[in-house]
Every structure is written in structure tokens, then in C-alpha cells.
Design brief:
Helix content is 22%, strand content 29%. By secondary structure, the protein is of the alpha+beta class. The strands form 2 sheets. Strands 4-5-6-7-11-10-9-8 form an 8-stranded antiparallel beta sheet, covered by helices on one side. Strands 1-2-3 form a 3-stranded antiparallel beta sheet, with helices on one face.
Length: 214
């Protein structure tokens, strides 16, 4: 916010005389203090906005081989359940689980899914090994999100097509990057889901379990 300085000559009632030219355009000490204060408040406001933006970005940031927002690889699944509540769906077998949370518990809306594996004794807790998101609010550091075209994704990550599947007669494909991120792509060549996984993970046996379609 810029200070509104008064540069017009001071008019005196009952006299047509103007103040001397040497006094015209001067800024009083009080005005200077106000200007400094206003400038400081504007900078502080910008700082608060920047910090808020940074916090918001971190909530939705996709980091390959690390995290999807606040959900991190190798974190205990029970901690995620404490934060999000009971999953809306999933499956479990042979020391592995898939847990799915839908936005507003609506199975037709965006979802967050995690694939977890039980740790070896004595811990035996379930740890998150993969995270799948469908909301476009989640973005990579390059700004990629669900809805991004495969051509744009290829410019940011070297990809290998590893899987394909059909849903309601339409064909989808999975493209993986060794950096620890994979992209499910729909028939219109745009991304429909993004998966964060550990580097070197066996993609063939786990990714398709995350699908919330079909």
C-alpha cells in the first residue's frame, strides 16, 4: 500500500495567499513515520502471505520417492488412519493392505489410497510403501497434476510404460519413472492418477491394486 502524500498548497480561509514555495512538497516528520509504518505493514503482510502459501503448497506437494502432501512413505499406516479416520474401502491379504479414502466418503469423487506392508518382527506394524492420489490439487515440484497431458509429463520425467488395463471399455496405461513416481494415463492422453513409490519397487505386483475404477 503506497502512502498518500499531500503535495497541494495549503489554502487558508480568509486569505488568498499561498504558503511559500520552499514549504511546498515537503513531507512532515509525522507523514514520514506513517509512510514507514505503512511500508512495514505491507511487507509484513506479504511475508505472512508467502508463509501461508508455502504451508499450503507443502500440504499438496508430491515429492517422488518421498511423500504426497502430509502422507509419507514408510510412515505407519495407523498414523494415517488417526489423521483421516477409518478408510472408506480397501483390502488385506498376506501381510499387505490397500486402504482408500474418498473425498466426502463419495466413491465417485477424488481419492487417496495407500499400499502398506507389515514390518518384520518385533515391530510388525504396517508401513506405507505406495501412495496414489487422483485430486488435481496435488502437484509435483514441476506443477504436474491429474489432468496434465502425457506429453508435458514426459518433458519432466523419463517414463517407461509398465502396465495397461481397461475400465468400462476404455484403455488406461501406467507410466513409471525410476525417480519414484508413476502416472496413470487415460484414453485422452491425460493423467488420471499419480503414484508415489519407493525407488526400485516392483511395480508389476502393486500398482493396479490402487485403482478406484472398474
Amino acid at each position: 500500500m503506497k502512502p498518500n502524500f499531500l503535495y497541494s498548497a495549503l489554502m487558508l480561509f480568509g486569505s488568498a495567499a499561498l504558503v511559500s514555495s520552499c514549504s511546498q512538497g515537503k513531507v512532515t516528520e509525522g507523514q514520514q513515520r506513517t509512510a514507514v509504518a505503512d511500508s512495514g505493514n505491507a511487507e509484513a503482510s506479504k511475508g505472512r502471505e508467502a508463509r501461508l502459501s508455502s504451508r499450503t503448497d507443502s500440504v499438496w506437494l508430491l515429492v517422488p520417492a518421498r511423500s504426497a502432501g502430509q502422507t509419507k512413505l514408510n510412515a505407519k499406516t495407523e498414523e494415517l488412519v488417526k489423521r483421516l479416520g477409518k478408510p472408506d474401502g480397501g483390502d488385506a491379504a498376506m501381510g499387505k493392505t490397500v486402504s482408500v479414502w474418498f473425498n466426502d466418503h463419495d466413491s465417485l469423487s477424488n481419492s487417496l489410497s495407500v499400499y502398506s506392508v507389515r514390518s518384520s518382527p518385533p515391530d510388525e506394524s504396517y508401513k506405507i510403501r505406495q501412495i496414489r492420489v487422483t485430486s488435481p490439487a496435488f502437484k509435483t515440484p514441476e506443477g504436474l497434476h491429474t489432468g496434465s497431458p502425457i506429453g508435458e509429463i514426459r518433458r519432466a520425467y523419463p517414463l517407461t510404460k509398465t502396465e495397461s488395463y481397461k475400465d468400462k471399455g476404455k484403455r488406461y496405461a501406467l507410466y513409471d519413472s525410476e525417480q519414484g513416481i508413476a502416472f496413470e494415463v487415460g484414453p485422452d492422453s491425460s493423467c488420471v492418477a499419480i503414484i508415489i513409490h519407493e525407488k526400485g519397487l516392483d511395480r508389476q505386483t502393486t500398482y493396479l491394486k490402487f485403482r478406484t475404477t472398474g
